[in-house]
Structure formats: structure tokens, C-alpha cells
């Protein structure tokens, strides 16, 4: 409760201070004591910037403090007190503040471009009230009315400009946030695609295990082996069958989701690489930098973007994890032949040991070990890349490596590239 009270009083003081400071930026109109300032913007803009705050206390405090500050400044300049000249200005702030409070309470403290006509009216009425206390019925003369209307119009236009700039800024932030979320969604779906491929492989292994268990049961039955062991073999086959059914349901569900997402519009190769670069920059270890060089003969368009995101992400991550220098240098070059597109992914890391070259595409093979935790990488990245390129895209992948330079060359048939 004390914290809430502190926050309330802090807001009152901050907004009041903004109004008082703004009131010092002023010009004289009609007469030297009638001053037009931007102080009133503090009441209006604070609601936009900071949200709901106690408007009436701010109004009273601001009116009193502006009055005392004007009187003090007069004394400092002329050596005499003249409070009656500045007392009417209090009515301006009080009238504007009360009208603004009533409007905000009715509209749930929300301001928009539709609020501007009301702000114009409040400004006009507040100025007329001050002029009436100063000049009586002369406040309704043509000159006074024209001046007050012009001031109200200018201040309202300035408020409208502020609202427009703020809404444009918020829209830019929202667009950037949506773009970031869309990129993350694309990367997530591409990663799920890879997991689905692994699960489909797992399904085949489960089917083989189930078939083996049934064959074992039949062999044991024909040989009249111990009845308990024979029934155990049958139970294992049945249990594996149930596991297979549940597993297939999960795989089908994920596959359906992937197919639905694959129906979306495709992407250009340049966009795919840009998204991955942005993701890699954000995930690099502290102090590590990435130099990313892209050379595209054509900015190819494809609807296999989820596959390609997964392929390139695995290749890039492998290069970054293996890199022992800083910055990490990655290059992607695209060219074409009569029937295929050729993409080279090059890094300048330590290279691949010749003894490992024939195994790097094997499932489970990995040279990445965390010596602090003993954790070994599951070694599925390059295996997935090979499956995607050969089985899904009908292409080939080969690798050449020497210390300081490793190049993965992807060759994909043109008719398979677009995915149409």
C-alpha cells in the first residue's frame, strides 16, 4: 500500500513539474500579463506517455505553482510584488484541468486523434475564462476571439503532431516485434521438420522391433519353449504395437501441422539467409563475432523454405561450434548449371579430421564433447542435412576440408528447388 501511495505522489510531482517548467516557455498575447505557454501540454502528454495519473491534484498544484513562479519572477525582475496580474492564470489551468479530467473519466483515460476537437474546445474555454477575469466582456471582441482561437488551434495542432509521431513510433516497434516473432516461428517450424524426420525413422525402427518380437514368439511357440517366456515375447510384441500406435499419432499430428504451414507462401534464398544471420547474431556467445558473406547469382524463390532453413541452420551451427577463432567467417555462394542449383557453404575453422570425413553424415556421429559436463552432442545435424537434400530434394551433398577451410557443396535439381 505504501508503494502504491509513493507511486501516486511521485506521478503527481513529476507531471506537476513538467507543467510548471513548460509554463516558463511563454509569450505575451494581448497584454504583458496574459501569457501563452506550452505548460498545458504537460497535462495532456503525461497521460499518453505515463498512463493514468491523478489529474485534479496535478491541476491544483500546477495552477498554484505557476502563479507563485510568475509572481516570484516578477519580483526578481522589478523588485515588487504584483500577484493580482498573475492570479487569473490560475483559472486557465483549473478550467482546463477539470474539463480534461471529466473527458478522461468518461473515455477511460484513452486519448486518440478523435480527442483533438475536445482538446481544442477545452483550450478555448480555459483561455476565455482567463480573459474574462482580466478584461471582462472585452474578451468577446473580435481581436480577442481571433487570438484565443488561433492559440487553441496551434496548441491542438501541436498535440496532434505529437500523437501522430507517437503512434507511428509505436507502429514501427510493433512491426519490428511481429517480424521478430515471425522469424522465430519460421525457425521453430524448420526445427520441428527435422524432428519429424527423425521420428519417422524411429517409427520404422519400432515396426522392425515389433516384427522381430512377433517372429520370436512364433519361433518359441513352434519349438515348445517355456510357456512363460513365449507369452512374455508375445506381450512385448503387443506392447510395442501399442507404443507404435501412439507414436504414429504424434508423428501424424506434427506432420499435418508441418504440411499446413508448408502451404504458406515461400521465401527467397536471400530472405532465408538473412533470417538465419539475424538468429545467429543473437545467439552467438558473448565476445564472439560473425562475418557473413553472401554471393548469389540469382535470388532464388522456393516453397521448400522450411527444409532449407533447417539445412543451412545445421551447417552454420556446426561451423560456429567448431570455430576456434574470432571472428567466425561464413560464406554462402550460389551458382547454377543447366539442370541444378549449386550452393557452397564455406567456413574458415580448423577443418575436419580426415579420419572423420567418411562418418560425419552418419547418425549419432559427433566430435563435439563438453569436457566440463561430459555431455556429447547427439550428432544428428549433418545426418538430417543429408536426408533432406537426398531424400526430400533429390540432390547431393559433398564436403572438402583442409585446415582453415571447409566447404559443403549442395547440388539441388532445379525442378525440385521451387517445391511447387
TrEMBL record:
An MF annotation (GO) of this entry: protein histidine kinase activity
Transmembrane segments: 12-30, 36-53, 60-80, 86-104, 148-171
Enzyme Commission identifier(s): 2.7.13.3
InterPro entries: 2C_sensor_his_kinase, HATPase_C_sf, HATPase_dom, His_kinase_dom, Sig_transdc_His_kin-like_C
Reactions this protein catalyses: ATP + protein L-histidine = ADP + protein N-phospho-L-histidine
All residue ranges annotated as the Histidine kinase domain in the record: 187-416
Keywords: Kinase, Membrane, Phosphoprotein, Transferase, Transmembrane, Transmembrane helix, Two-component regulatory system
Domain of life: Bacteria
CDD domains named among the record's database cross-references: HATPase
Gene3D superfamilies in the cross-refs: Histidine kinase-like ATPase, C-terminal domain (3.30.565.10)
Coiled coil regions, renumbered to chain: none
One of the GO biological process terms: phosphorelay signal transduction system
Pfam families given in the database record: HATPase_c
PANTHER family in UniProt: SENSOR PROTEIN CREC (PTHR44936)
Name of the molecule in the record: histidine kinase
The organism of origin for this protein: Coprococcus comes
Lineage, opening ranks: Bacteria, Bacillati, Bacillota, Clostridia, Lachnospirales
Gene name for this UniProt entry: citS
Amino acid at each position: 500500500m505504501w508503494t502504491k501511495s509513493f507511486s501516486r505522489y511521485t506521478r503527481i510531482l513529476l507531471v506537476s513539474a513538467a507543467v510548471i517548467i513548460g509554463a516558463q516557455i511563454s509569450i505575451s498575447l494581448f497584454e504583458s500579463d496574459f501569457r501563452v505557454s506550452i505548460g498545458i501540454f504537460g497535462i495532456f502528454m503525461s497521460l499518453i506517455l505515463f498512463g493514468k495519473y491523478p489529474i485534479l491534484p496535478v491541476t491544483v498544484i500546477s495552477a498554484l505553482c505557476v502563479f507563485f513562479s510568475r509572481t516570484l519572477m516578477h519580483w526578481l525582475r522589478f523588485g515588487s510584488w504584483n500577484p493580482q496580474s498573475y492570479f487569473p492564470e490560475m483559472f486557465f489551468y483549473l478550467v482546463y484541468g477539470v474539463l480534461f479530467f471529466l473527458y478522461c473519466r468518461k473515455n477511460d483515460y484513452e486519448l486518440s486523434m478523435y480527442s483533438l476537437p475536445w482538446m481544442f474546445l477545452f483550450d478555448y474555454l480555459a483561455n476565455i475564462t482567463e480573459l474574462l477575469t482580466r478584461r471582462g466582456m472585452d474578451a468577446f471582441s473580435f481581436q480577442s476571439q481571433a487570438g484565443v482561437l488561433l492559440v487553441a488551434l496551434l496548441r491542438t495542432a501541436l498535440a496532434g503532431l505529437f500523437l501522430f509521431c507517437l503512434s507511428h513510433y509505436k507502429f514501427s516497434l510493433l512491426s519490428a516485434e511481429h517480424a521478430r516473432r515471425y522469424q522465430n516461428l519460421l525457425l521453430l517450424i524448420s526445427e520441428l521438420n527435422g524432428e519429424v524426420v527423425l521420428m519417422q525413422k524411429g517409427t520404422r525402427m519400432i515396426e522392425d522391433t515389433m516384427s522381430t518380437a512377433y517372429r520370436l514368439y512364433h519361433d518359441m511357440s513352434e519349438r515348445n519353449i517355456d510357456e512363460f517366456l513365449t507369452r512374455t515375447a508375445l506381450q512385448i510384441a503387443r506392447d510395442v504395437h501399442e507404443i507404435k500406435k501412439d507414436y504414429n499419432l504424434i508423428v501424424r499430428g506434427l506432420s499435418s501441422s508441418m504440411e499446413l504451414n508448408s502451404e504458406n507462401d515461400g521465401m527467397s534464398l536471400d530472405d532465408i539467409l538473412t533470417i538465419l544471420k539475424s538468429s545467429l547474431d543473437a545467439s552467438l556467445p558473448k565476445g564472439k563475432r560473425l562475418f557473413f558473406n553472401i554471393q548469389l547469382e540469382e535470388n532464388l524463390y522456393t516453397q521448400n523454405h522450411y527444409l532449407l532453413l533447417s539445412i543451412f541452420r545445421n551447417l552454420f551451427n556446426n561451423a560456429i561450434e567448431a570455430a576456434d577463432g574470432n571472428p567466425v567467417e561464413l560464406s554462402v555462394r550460389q551458382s547454377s548449371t543447366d539442370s541444378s542449383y549449386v550452393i557452397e557453404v564455406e567456413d574458415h575453422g580448423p577443418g575436419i579430421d580426415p579420419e572423420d570425413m567418411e562418418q560425419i553424415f552418419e547418425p549419432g556421429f559427433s566430435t563435439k564433447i563438453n569436457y566440463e559436463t561430459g555431455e556429447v552432442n547427439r550428432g544428428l545435424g549433418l545426418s538430417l542435412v543429408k536426408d533432406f537434400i537426398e531424400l526430400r530434394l533429390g540432390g547431393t551433398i559433398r564436403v572438402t576440408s583442409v585446415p582453415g577451410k571447409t566447404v559443403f557443396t549442395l547440388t539441388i535439381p532445379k525442378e525440385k528447388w521451387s517445391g511447387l
